[in-house]
Write a structure and sequence with these properties.
The complex is a heterodimer of chains A (about 130) and B (about 80). Chain A is an alpha+beta fold and about 130 residues long. Chain A has three helices and eight strands, in the order βββααβββββα. Chain A has a single domain, classed as BH3618-like (Roll). Helix content of chain A is about 10%, strand content about 25%. In chain A, strands 1, 2, 3, 4, 5, 6, 7 and 8 form an eight-stranded antiparallel β-sheet that branches. Chain A is globular. The relative contact order of chain A is 0.19. Chain B is of the alpha+beta class. Chain B has two helices and three strands; from the N terminus they run βββαα. A three-stranded antiparallel β-sheet of chain B has the order 1-2-3, with no helix packed on it. In chain B, a hairpin with a 3-residue loop joins β1 and β2. Chain B is elongated and about 55 Å long. The N and C termini of chain B lie far apart (about 45 Å). Classes of the chains: A alpha+beta (about 130), B alpha+beta (about 80). At the A-B interface, β3 and β4 of A face α1 and α2 of B.
């Protein structure tokens, strides 16, 4: 489902999205080849409803999406932000490079946004300006 | 930071074996060509940042850290509602 893996984990091709009722709205992306590799993510719509994708034509093509428009989050694609946590700091979400999943084919890719005003370390909770 | 002015077609050399050529200058983007030894990793800064961030995110495995993060998230959303 990730034909090219993701940066730093190029060999990881398959992840299983896991949701747990008591951990909503988190989505766990569990690697199917490395048991100890699991990313914790948040769906864009749950934390940043106005998030606009700005994918490169290369990424659109790789996911089999129409090249002439950006996909609609929730309808065409699932969009997940990978979370990360450093000691003594608020958790951050990677809005620069969301995981984008084509809902029709389940092909996925970490799509680095072009002309992005978003950072790879946006603090949670997200400032409203980042999501309007 | 060293700043140099170059025109399309001109080059910059870094050391003996890295050449950066300005191929084309557009309105908002430029096309550059890079010649470097195979041992030198060439990547965009964004890919490098995402790489580092993915490695950091993959360390987020302990339940305690996750719990802590969840609590912070819940605190955060509670604050936002006030």
């Amino acid at each position: 489902m990730f034909p090219d893996g993701i940066p730093a984990f190029e060999q990881e091709r398959s992840f299983l999205p896991i949701r747990q009722p008591h951990n909503e709205p988190l989505v766990f992306l569990q690697s199917l080849s490395t048991p100890e590799l699991c990313f914790v993510t948040l769906p864009a719509q749950s934390v940043c409803p106005g998030f606009q994708l700005n994918m490169t034509s290369e990424d659109l093509h790789a996911l089999g999406l129409a090249a002439d428009r950006q996909p609609t989050v929730g309808r065409d694609v699932l969009c997940l932000f990978i979370l990360s946590l450093e000691e003594n700091a608020p958790p951050t979400a990677n809005l620069l490079a969301p995981i984008v999943v084509n809902l029709e084919t389940m092909r996925a890719r970490q799509a680095i946004q072009t002309d992005s005003s978003y950072s790879h370390r946006e603090r949670l909770p997200l400032r409203e300006a980042a999501c309007s | 930071m060293l700043v140099m002015r170059r025109r399309a077609g001109e080059s910059i050399l870094i050391g003996d074996d890295i050449e950066i050529q300005i191929i084309q200058i557009g309105e908002s983007r430029i096309k550059i060509g890079i010649t470097a030894p195979r041992s030198v990793a060439v990547t965009t800064k964004e890919v490098h940042l995402v790489r580092q961030e993915n490695l950091a995110a993959a360390q987020l495995q302990s339940v305690a850290a996750l719990r802590h993060m969840l609590d912070r998230l819940i605190d955060g959303s509670a604050d936002a509602e006030k």
